[in-house]
């Protein structure tokens, strides 16, 4: 089984405007990160996250690289970000949308190399950093 190791670097998910955010406990933050890691780990095929690029019809093999430490809230849901690497070494950001489920969390949507939807949600005030 492939294991995706979280590497919390200095990089933030994106440049989000400073706003007062919701407060999460350390265990909630760990649960959110664990849900993302489990989702990624379960999705990997021979160590790669497969993504169809609908512009050119090519299935790209992306390698997990680094989880960003920032967690953002979107109402009752959350957004977490991870950096992947394309075969040529280019960085590919992935945004994972996460919901509470029972006593844990589940990824319900993923945006691959498409930051515009998240930026629009942040700019509209619908998504904000949590502390």
Please outline what is shown here.
By secondary structure, the protein is an alpha+beta fold. The chain has helices at residues 26-43, 116-123, and strands spanning 49-53, 58-74, 77-85, 91-101, 104-112, 128-129. It is globular, with a radius of gyration of 14 Å.
Explain what you see.
The chain has 131 residues and is an alpha+beta fold. Helix content is 20%, strand content 40%. It has 2 helices and 6 strands. It has helices spanning 26-43, 116-123, and strands at residues 49-53, 58-74, 77-85, 91-101, 104-112, 128-129. Strands 1, 2, 3, 4, 5 and 6 form a 6-stranded antiparallel β-sheet that branches. The protein is globular. The N and C termini lie far apart (33 Å). The model is unreliable at 1-20 (pLDDT under 50).
| Number of DSSP E strands | 6
**Biggest sheet architecture:** 6 strands, antiparallel
Mean pLDDT, rounded to whole units?
Answer: 85
Helix content: 10-25%
Going by helix content, strand content and strand pairing, the class is: alpha+beta
Molecular shape: globular
Number of helical segments?
2
Terminal residue distance: 33 Å
List low-confidence stretches.
1-20
Rg for CA atoms: 14 Å
Helix/strand order, N-terminal first: HEEEEEHE
Strand content: 35-45%
